[in-house]
């Protein structure tokens, strides 16, 4: 979109939603209730995000995604 190249696999729509809600302070359970995804699905999305972005903590993924203007 903005011409920047990212050093990770692109996140899908569901992952971006979960990461945005996590950024806003929601837990996996909160995100599950808000989106209708199961808690396990939310945790799977967050793990996929960490794997794709090559980080250990979800907050690190939030920082990278905000820096890259993804969320």
Helix/strand/pairing category: mainly alpha
Strand content: under 5%
What is the global morphology? globular
Largest sheet: none
Task: Report on this structure.
The model has no long low-confidence stretch (mean pLDDT about 90). It contains four helices and no strands. The longest helix is centred in the middle third of the chain and has 15 residues, at about 40-55. The protein is an all-alpha fold and about 70 residues long. Helix 1 (about 15-25) crosses helix 4 and helix 3 crosses helix 4 (about 60-65).
Structure, briefly:
This protein has 71 residues and is mainly α.
Write the layout of secondary structure elements.
Blueprint lengths: L12 H11 L4 H8 L3 H15 L4 H10 L4
Helix pairs in contact: 1-3, 1-4, 2-3, 3-4
Question: Which key terms come to mind for this protein?
Answer:
71 residues, mainly alpha, 4 helices, globular
């Amino acid at each position: 979109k903005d011409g920047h190249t990212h050093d990770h696999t692109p996140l899908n729509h569901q992952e971006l939603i979960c990461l945005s809600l996590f950024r806003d302070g929601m837990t996996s359970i909160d995100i599950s209730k808000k989106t209708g995804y199961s808690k396990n699905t939310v945790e799977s999305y967050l793990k996929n995000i960490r794997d794709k972005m090559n980080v250990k903590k979800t907050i690190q993924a939030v920082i990278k995604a905000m820096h890259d203007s993804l969320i």
